[in-house]
Fold:
Amino acid sequence: MDAVRVALLREVLDGTRWPAAARRFAGVLRSSVVPQGGGLLLVGTERYEPWHLAAHLVDEAAWSGRPELAPTLVRHRARPAGPAHLAVGLGRLEAAGRGETLLVVAPERPDGGLLERVHDARRAGATVLSLDGGDREVHGLAHEALTVTEGDDVDLDMVQHLVSAAAGENTLPAARPGRRRFMDRLARLTDHLTAPPPQRW
Structure:
């Protein structure tokens, strides 16, 4: 999703909590990685791999001049013989510790093995953040969480777009005056969000 589509998404969601919540979460993400100069690990569940978020964070890191935002994508089914950015497996979490940030994207409850690794990383001093679907254990492991549940105005993919875009912002934009009808703006956005993602990862 490019900057124009993100701006349109924010316009659609104006008057809801999501633009501000995404910026707050992105601010925590920035503040957790900047003092250490990097060390951002990104992991999903066995069924949901956040490769699209990884790609957007890489772009934001380049465009904003914040290389520390470029994550290492940790995969459940990594292929050691594949490209380096796709070859990092769950074993990387066992080495996570102080000075590193672990961002967990979990639409559903992860398996016990991932939860145990995240718990161990937190105990070792890593900062844990989560974009989750409301699982209490995932939420409980996170120092900071942004939860999207069924019935919200957005889905987890939309929130990832808002967070990645906000992570690369240098300043907060001025508030727009007025408020338009939510459903009218949502209709304008539908075509943009249903387009298939670019296959860059």
About this structure: The CA atoms of residues 78 and 84 lie 10 Å apart. Confidence is low (pLDDT under 50) at residues 171-180. The helical segments are 3-12, 18-33, 51-64, 91-94, 112-123, 136-141, 156-167, 182-193.
